[in-house]
Amino acid sequence: MISVCTLNPALNYTMRCEGLRLYELNQSSGEVMMCDDAGVNLCQIFKELHSPAILKGFVAGFTGEELISHVKKLGLEEEFIHLKEGLSRVNITLSGIKNTLISAQGPMISSDEIKELFDQFILLKESDTLILSGDVPPSLPENFYQTILGVVSANHVRCCVDTGNAQLSKVLDYQPFLVKVSENQLEEFFQTRIYTLNELIEYARKLKAMGALNVLVSRGKLGAVLIDEQDQALNCLPAIEEVVSLNGCEDALLAGFLAAYLDTGNYKSALKIGVAAYEASAKVLGLADYAAIKASYEQFL
């Protein structure tokens, strides 16, 4: 079983407002509420690729109930801990000539509620996979991901990490099975600029040498690079002619790669499936379904 830990999931409320005027009453021309949390995106792709996955983390209040309603409508499984106080996040996007984004902090989490989550992690086995998705919320200790990895490593659980650089540097000592980063994130991590594919491979290998068994680097329209546990560099280019939306595409890359690897144990084909999932999702609003991912994958055969 794949467990996807998204500690601070959020709803996303977008309001369309042309010609936004500060300090005045503005009229929205349209609104939409959706849940495109990274953890939820991962589970959507896992579901399309027939890999069972379950969401774990925290939800709170009526916004948490709405988030769970979105998850259930998507046909996804969840084991969220329901907090006694607070509200799950609602991130705001004001969409007009320029987009303005407001990211909420999220609810406070008590020690008893943290223990409930760890009681779930203790049950994970060697045959399970745990994905740590997103950043640690402000109400939790900075070393929270380290503590999780310390707990599950005792049972030899396969762990994958997709988070910001502040958390990434803290978990490498636990030798996660996979670390997924973007090319920009890799540049920020090493405080450098990357201009060529060879330079990217060099820095991805440096990241791997710091503890990760495998490093997956997303390059957007340029596909992805994998440095596998044998230190081989694998590169896969998509064929994206027209982009409709890139929302969720990085999550599709990670989920596609992991679903294929867990099914076949083959890094090359897993990378191709991951890039196919990215490419197919870039061509639609939302995330691609199985048929679209399969069609994109067939171009690599």
Automatic annotation (TrEMBL):
Gene Ontology, cellular component aspect: cytosol
Signal peptide: none
EC number(s) given by UniProt: 2.7.1.144
Molecular functions (GO terms): ATP binding; phosphofructokinase activity; tagatose-6-phosphate kinase activity
Enzyme class: transferase
Keywords assigned by UniProt, alphabetized: ATP-binding, Kinase, Lactose metabolism, Nucleotide-binding, Transferase
Catalytic activity: D-tagatofuranose 6-phosphate + ATP = D-tagatofuranose 1,6-bisphosphate + ADP + H(+)
GO BP, sorted A to Z: D-tagatose 6-phosphate catabolic process; lactose metabolic process
Pathway: Carbohydrate metabolism; D-tagatose 6-phosphate degradation; D-glyceraldehyde 3-phosphate and glycerone phosphate from D-tagatose 6-phosphate: step 1/2
Domain of life: Bacteria
Gene3D superfamilies for this protein: 3.40.1190.20
Domain Carbohydrate kinase PfkB residue range list: 38-277
Family (UniProt): Belongs to the carbohydrate kinase PfkB family. LacC subfamily. Belongs to the carbohydrate kinase pfkB family.
Protein name: Tagatose-6-phosphate kinase
Lineage, opening ranks: Bacteria, Bacillati, Bacillota, Erysipelotrichia, Erysipelotrichales
